[in-house]
Amino acid sequence: MATRKVLAGARVVLPTGIADGGRVVVEGTRIAEAAPADPARARTAVEDTAAADTQVVDVSGHWLVPGFVDLHNHGGGGASFTLGTVDEVLTGIRTHRLHGTTTLVTSTVTDDMDALALRAGMLSELAEQGDIAGIHFEGPFISPCRKGAHSEGLLRDPDPADVRKLVDAARGHAKMVTLATELPGGIDSVRLLAEHGVIAAVGHTDATYEQTVEAIDAGATVATHLFNAMPPIGHRAPGPIAALLEDERITVELINDGTHLHPAALELAFRHAGPHRVAFITDAMDAAGFGDGRYMLGPLEVEVSDGVARLVEGGSIAGSTLTLDRAFQRAVTVDGLPVEDVVAALSVNPARLLGMSDRIGSLEPGKDADLVLLDADFALKGVMRQGEWVVDPQLG
């Protein structure tokens, strides 16, 4: 098998901008070259084609973008990251890779503390193997007023000792904890997480504007699925949304599936926060990449119909069935966002948040060869992870 791969002729999204007819060279697991077209390379292209150890792929008419990075994902392929066996979790991870997510953080949902600690231990082994980038705890430290698809009976205040228990159980692989920071212990827990290098995310919260500002000043840096599971903006009580949008220290998660957000809300977030502060996430549950039916989200039963997941009891939206390739395509073709801004939201910004920008998030020499091939209509046509094709190029 060729150890050197040359992808030539695509519109390549580079940190410096879009390169028409660009070229990406992969050697082993890393990017060796990522550059615009250069007529002086014509002879090199001929030599590449003749080399026995080189695979040359003409991807003219397509886009090459960095592999997607999902900060917030509960499952897929029929598998739950909170309840599934190791094999089932790996099935969910593979499902999302087939849709371009080359780096994934597994998210849990509210459960008993001991069960969450056990789950963190299992997921940390997958992180040590390189299958996932880490663990996100969404719950149980959230507001019963904004619980969404979380079991109210298992919710608790964010006592720093309990937060520390989960962080320790993750053995260095806890990446993010979502908190209702207005609850008792919330601000101290934000400080604890910041001290341990774990992202404190404001979400499932009933906080006021002033309480949210206090949480940001204490070290919170992410808004968990902005707009969802928090009070709406009011003209006298602007609430958490205004505080999270206005502060340059905050990256806002957005679920761009056409169900969680009205297009005007998405545009508001992009205009106010700017593309450098947005991270598209899936918030996916088991049905992503699998299909309609009945599922369990933690201890709660979910009905998925026409791709929309809702709790059987109460009807609250229960995560999504989104994959990030669909989020990309929708952002460009429906929302009209520039391709470079969408790449920032799907790759650059989440990689930076995870502290992994030296390895992933952009097409640059020395970084992991994680990339996605899209056609002119932004439909997925190929996925490479660490130099190996997960989805072989479909160029017909």
Automatic annotation (TrEMBL):
Q: Which PANTHER family match?
A: N-ACETYLGLUCOSAMINE-6-PHOSPHATE DEACETYLASE (PTHR11113)
- Could you say which residues bind substrate here? A149, N228, A229, R236, H260, I317, A318, G319
- Provide the binding site for Zn(2+): E138, H204, H225
Which residues are the active-site ones?
Answer: D283 (proton donor/acceptor)
What is the name of this protein?
A: N-acetylglucosamine-6-phosphate deacetylase
Enzyme Commission numbers on file: 3.5.1.25
Which source organism does the UniProt entry give?
Streptomyces mangrovisoli
GO BP terms: N-acetylglucosamine catabolic process
Its taxonomic placement starts with: Bacteria, Bacillati, Actinomycetota, Actinomycetes, Kitasatosporales
> GO MF annotations for this entry?
metal ion binding; N-acetylglucosamine-6-phosphate deacetylase activity
Write out the catalysed reaction: N-acetyl-D-glucosamine 6-phosphate + H2O = D-glucosamine 6-phosphate + acetate
The family database entries (CDD domains) matched by this protein are listed as:
NagA
Q: In which pathway does it act?
A: Amino-sugar metabolism; N-acetylneuraminate degradation; D-fructose 6-phosphate from N-acetylneuraminate: step 4/5
Which Pfam family, just one, is annotated for this protein?
Amidohydro_1
